[in-house]
Amino acid sequence: MTTPWSTASFEDFLASRNEPAWLTDRRRQAFAAYQELLKKPLDPEEFKRIDLRALRPDKFALVPSGDAVPLSTLMANRADFGGTVSHIDGKAVASQLRPELAAKGVIFGSWETVLATRPEILQALERAVPADTDRFSAWHTAFCTGGTVLFVPRNVQVDVPLYSLIGLATNGAADLSHTLVVLEEGASATLLEETASLDPSHTGLHVGAVELLVAPRAVLRYVQLQNWSEKVWHLAHQAGRVANDASLQWTVGGLGAKVAHIHQDIHLDGKGAAAEVNGVTFSTDKQIHSYYTQQGHHAPNTRSDLLYKDVIRDRARIIWRGMIQVDVDAQKTDGYQRNDALMLSDACRADLIPGLEIEADDVRCTHGATAGRVDEEQLFYCMCRGISRSEAMHVIVEGFFQRVYDRIPVELVRETLSQAVQRKLGIDG
Question: Cβ contacts of residue 103 below 8 Å, gap of 6+?
Fold first, then answer.
């Protein structure tokens, strides 16, 4: 019997694609690596706290075609975007870009469109996420069905946010989409991306990748709000490479999924490169949200600043393993990482593990992590002033997240996160 990810299925998949030889060769190399990596254990440092035994890949399959179906999303239709791209079940279903941006040479569209019109842009693939990183990256590269591509030419400023949607609409569908952002020297852009499910009862699988390539003196703001249904597995490699004097602001929102694991790498490759990473996670029921973050300083005078805030309730679990890595030549590094967890029940759990690996001797690197319960005296104080317990809990949770909100310059993102928190708390808003 042929399974969805077997050699025979892979050959059928290749036969169904009309792709250039270089991309087919890349897929074949990735599939060979996938088969070899399946024989090897996953990195215990990254995966030992995540139970993947319940993941059955053969229960999920690629869907032949995606249809434009209405999804309940957090950000869509709430702003006037400069361009939008939508993918359903791994297939592009809609794409548009303002003519004035296209006239400046901005490319924003689906993988298929860019492959047909500007294939050289896709040659940047694997610069941040190599296919042989682990079995999931190899699996993704071999079977990737497309995704969103943003290319901004040299010195072009995209002042209005762009929007990308990744959706699952079919029960048992697998999505292996890829987000690629390439900013040339001196360019700037903001990309807001979110994931969503059509039906909360549908199972699904996302094995994705995000590559953010920021050239010298470019500025990129990237936001991904993960809001799958709680029956979806979300496994993703996400990485950014930042050149000299360039800046990357990266915001991650973790709300949905049954199990979500993100391997997030920041590579500060050039002198003066800077990255700010913001994370907001709200885990309820039996959700597991896991992050493996690495801030790599590879050049002098680089700066990274990571701040994650987690709220956990019921029997949910948060896992975070963070690492600041400083190369021997990366003098004058300024690195910071912090993760704080607010626990709303006795049965939830937070595993927060920061770390440092420093080879240079002239650096400033600090890290920290905290986990604690809601102060009952704070709740009592609010309720004594006529606020219900649920409203008081909302005030406290919002206050807990506020430090991250204050770091996000896009008002739509701040408002969306606030409304999502209300929904998680069971408050209409």
Answer: none
**Closest of 49, 180, 40 to residue 107, by C-alpha:** 180
**How many CA atoms are closer than 13 Å to the CA of 54, on its beta-carbon side?**
10
For 188-221, what is each residue's pLDDT tens digit? Answer: 999 999 999 999 999 999 999 999 999 999 999 9
Boundaries of every domain in the chain: 17-269, 376-429
Q: Please tell me the chain's helix, strand, coil percentages from 3-state DSSP, rounded to the nearest 5.
A: 25, 40, 35
Long-range CB contact pairs, 413-417, < 8 A, 24+: 413/75, 413/192, 413/223, 413/225, 413/251, 416/74, 416/75, 416/78, 416/225, 417/225, 417/253, 417/280
Question: Would you say 237 and 137 are in contact if contact means Cβ atoms under 8 Å apart?
Answer: yes
Please state at what angle helix 389-405 crosses helix 411-424, rounded to 10 degrees: 150
> For the segment 41-100, what is each residue's pLDDT rounded down to a tens digit?
999 999 999 989 999 999 999 998 766 787 888 898 888 999 999 999 999 999 999 999
The tokens for 423 are 């929904």
Per-residue pLDDT, 66: 65
Query: Distance (Å, rounded) from C-alpha 49 to C-alpha 318?
Result: 10
* CA dist., res. 242 & res. 245, Å (int): 8
For CA atoms 175, 268, 225, 49, the dihedral sign is: positive
Give CA–CA dist 46/34, Å, rounded.
18
Rounded to the nearest angstrom, the gap between the alpha carbon of residue 217 and the centroid of all alpha carbons in its chain is: 23
Give the residue from 313, 252, 303 showing the smallest Cα distance to 277.
Answer: 252
How far is 305 from 373, CA to CA, in rounded Å?
25
* pLDDT tens, residue by residue, 318-344: 999 999 999 999 999 999 999 999 999
Instruction: Render 378-429 in DSSP notation, one character per residue.
Output: HHHHHHTTT--HHHHHHHHHHHHHHHHHTT---HHHHHHHHHHHHHHTT---
Contact 414, 379 (CB under 8 A): no
